[in-house]
Amino acid sequence: MNQQAEKPRMPDEVGVPDPFQYMHPVMKKNYGNWAWHDRPRAGVLRHVSKSGDEIFTVRAGTQRQMDLFTIRKLAEIGDRFADGHIRFTTRSNIEFMVADEAKVAPLVAALQEAGFPVGGTGASVSMISHTQGWLHCDIPGTDASGVVKGLMDMLHKEFVQEKMPNRLRITTSCCQINCGGQGDIAINVQYTKPPKINHDLVANVCERPAVVARCPVAAIRPAMVDGKPSLEVDEKKCVCCGACYPPCPPMQINGEDSTKIAIWVGGKHSNARSKPTFHKLAVANLPNNAPHWPEVKEAVGKIVAAYKQDAKHWERMGEWIERIGWKRFFDMTGLAFTKHHLDTWTGARKTMNMSAHVHF
Amino acid sequence: MKDGDPRDEKPVTGEGKHPTPHLDQLEDGPWPSFVTGLKRLRDEGAPNNQKMMNDLLGQLNHSYENKLGYWKGGTLSVFGYGGGIIPRFSEVADKFPESKEFHTLRVMPPAGFHYSTDLLRQMCDIWEKYGSGLIAFHGQSGDIMFQGCTSENVQPAFDELNKIGFDLGGAGPALRTAMSCVGHARCEQSCFDEVRAHRTIINTLLDEMHRPALPYKFKFKFSGCANDCVNAIHRADFAVIGTWRDDIKIDQQKVKEHIAEKGRKYTIDTVVNMCPTRAISLNDDDTLEIDNPSCVRCMHCINVMTKALSPGDDKGVSIMIGGKRALKIGDLMGIMVVPFMKLETDEDFEKLTEFGEQVVEFFADNALEHERIGETIDRIGLPAFLEALDIPPDPNMVNHPRTSCFVRTDDFDDEAAKWFERKAREAGLQISAE
Fold first, then answer.
1. Which of B179, B231, B353, B371 should we substitute to test contact with A (largest number of A Cβ atoms within 10 Å)?
2. pLDDT band, residue B2 (cuts 50/70/90)
3. Residues of A in contact with B229 (CB under 8 A)
4. Domain of B65: which CATH number?
5. Cβ–Cβ of A12/B30 closer than 8 Å?
6. In chain A, how many domains are there?
7. Same domain, B153 and B38
8. Is residue B428 part of a domain?
């Protein structure tokens, strides 16, 4: 051990590994030469190359945070029922590729048998893109994997079939940094109270000018509190974003009265049809009622149901709302429209209706 | 590390297990349960995994009980590197000592997230020995997250992963791990070699990842087409999106087959009427007519008619700069800065890489501390950014020209002359090419 410490191993800075060594041979052979694809069933893709080769992909949901037993089970399924090559999607679904169509049905059956739902393709609700939460984050307002499990249990049916108007992408984030990202539905912690400051610790723990600089509304200033150098917050200005908490943990933003959940709708990454969009506030101040988040589930359920019932084929959430108008969105979902839905941030005016176009 | 293999330690016994009433509620239901996975590591894992997972489960349940997180960060790295490890020290280590250090190794996956089953097993074996047995495929930045490592085991775990060809990803104020879509490997809509672009740029700039010295994070993402499957426009400082300049390719026979199968009304409703620039019409003989100069390459019609329509042959990339989430000035999407760049030859890839290096260098030199490049551009204005990088302004960069009259235009004629010179040069190039 000591000898090792004296002669540390120099890292081999290999960078991004070459994927061709792990790629399915049919994909490697036809790299850049694909002609078209279709989806024989939910969860299964068929891609056909200009060479005539075909590759079938079976997509299944995972819990993302996977234990070794789960990963080894997936590897075993990959060896027994597929061709020993897998990949993951951006949303943590696993994909098994097979060259022989006859392998598809047994592979699907093996995955389902082992508890991995097959789906997530086309007009489905795919796996929720999420964050780390209480499991690993240093500033989380809530958990990620746990509440995602609850939501995906509820939406499981919409994962294994393609019966939504278009794909529905959900994200969750355990603070307003929003590592989960934009989504058709984004379920994010939204703090409702200014940070509670432990003035005994600020001077030793926080680099005060950096914390002052971090505040988006310039609500933090240096102050002497009880004879100690600390920071104070202008609570009238504070927008309760929590940005000061990561650089200064004594400015605790989390708490029963502060850590609430907001649901946002209509974010879209793709450029298909409409340009990419940011998600917009649907409802705020829902309780952080982990592990099941019943109030969140209820609101998400209403939004998903209204979208599914009313949107036209290929309309994403935001495009559907754009067509029917926000008034009808709030009517159909039964959610309240409040003064907090009116944007007040830079550029807010551009979010207002400056026309005579009105929905009734 | 203690002498011998950590997997030979004593297992956790029944009475030593923490009760987890909150987590126990997350085991039913049809979706795979991570709690069941963690418990399996606690009950059947290697003894070192068992101990760590028992206390980790205890702490997580404690979090559910009190609705608070109990991890704090710190500083930790491996020999030769300044980033890539996310240190986590427990604030409730007195109650849960075996998971008092639960660090994550961010490891860069193969471009496009391809794995062999053998590779997965090798990773599992390493993480069984040196870590907790918990791996996330993948984090939001695109890293494989090897979660749950003691401070002592970080170096040997990295050494083992490094020996099988894997390297640490980014963390802190540095170049971050990139992502690329499946692209050329399986998708006919892909317009450039994503693997090559991804690996070339990141591996060229690797020093910025391993030894953090930038004002703040900088992310590249590579999507083969405008469907943007890796969410580059929202999430990347530097988004590379595949596109093409010539006409969409139409197989009219396949168009007819599509209409025969799906119906004429359905095709009008879902293809013709959904074109964002009204560039498509359906002919009386059930063939499609596309006004290509009006097409914005949004991908919608190609998504619907995957057999009949496909991107053109003159492919390349668009580059958008400045995407990020809320902090500090609010959400930003990338701005179209390079509407088209050819990306086929070695020289094309060199040009892309050079441009990436220039943008990162500009960021390093000009951004304020903790400022993303999108915020820098907002602060200084797009014209200043373009001038610094010697990029001519282009109508594709805007939704519409400025509406505000508060601008000084006394050099307008000089600027207009540059535009006409450029147009003449481009026309000349086109003539000589023809």
1. B231
2. very low
3. 89-90, 269
4. 3.30.70.2500
5. no
6. 3
7. yes
8. no
ipTM of the prediction: 0.96
- The shortest CB-CB distance from A65 to any of B22, B34, B159 is to B34
B239 touches chain A (CB under 8 A): no
Q: Is B234 on the interface with A (CB under 8 A)?
A: yes
- Write down the pTM of the prediction: 0.96
**Mean pLDDT of the region B231-240:** 97
Residues B294 and B389 in one domain: no
Q: Are residues A153 and A278 in the same domain?
A: yes
Residues A264 and A337 in one domain: yes
Residues of chain B contacting residue A92, judged by C-beta atoms under 8 Å apart: 136-138
| B278 touches A: beta carbon within 8 Å | no
| Residue B89: pLDDT over 70 | yes
- Residues in A closer than 8 angstroms to B230, CB to CB, are 90
Q: Is residue A121 part of a domain?
A: no
The long-range contacts involving B16-19, CB below 8 angstroms and separated by at least 24 positions, are B16/B54, B17/B42, B17/B54, B18/B54, B18/B55, B18/B57, B18/B58, B18/B61, B18/B96, B19/B61
Mutation target for B interface from A136, A139, A260, A314: give the one with most B CBs within 10 A. A136
Hey, which residues 175-204 in chain A have their CB within 8 Å of chain B? 176-182
Query: Structural domain of residue B276, as residue ranges?
Result: 249-310
> Do A108 and A177 belong to one domain?
no
Chain A residues whose beta carbon lies within 8 Å of the beta carbon of residue B296: 271
Residue A158 shares a structural domain with residue A83: no
**B417 belongs to a structural domain:** no
Count of structural domains within chain B: 3
Average pLDDT of B253-278?
Answer: 98
Could B29 and A65 be called an inter-chain contact, meaning their C-beta atoms sit closer than 8 Å?
A: no
Distance from CA of B63 to the nearest CA of A (A): 6
Asked if the structure places residue A106 within a domain, the reply is: yes
Work out the average pLDDT over B299-325.
97
Mean pLDDT by 10 residues, chain A (360 residues): 67 97 98 98 98 98 97 98 97 97 98 98 97 94 92 97 98 94 96 97 95 96 95 97 95 95 97 98 96 95 98 98 98 98 95 95
Is the domain of A149 the same as that of A233?
A: no
**B356-369 per-position pLDDT tens digit:** 999 999 999 999 99
Residue B298 to residue A70, Cβ atoms within 8 A: no
Query: Which of A237, A252, A267 is where one domain is finished?
Result: A252
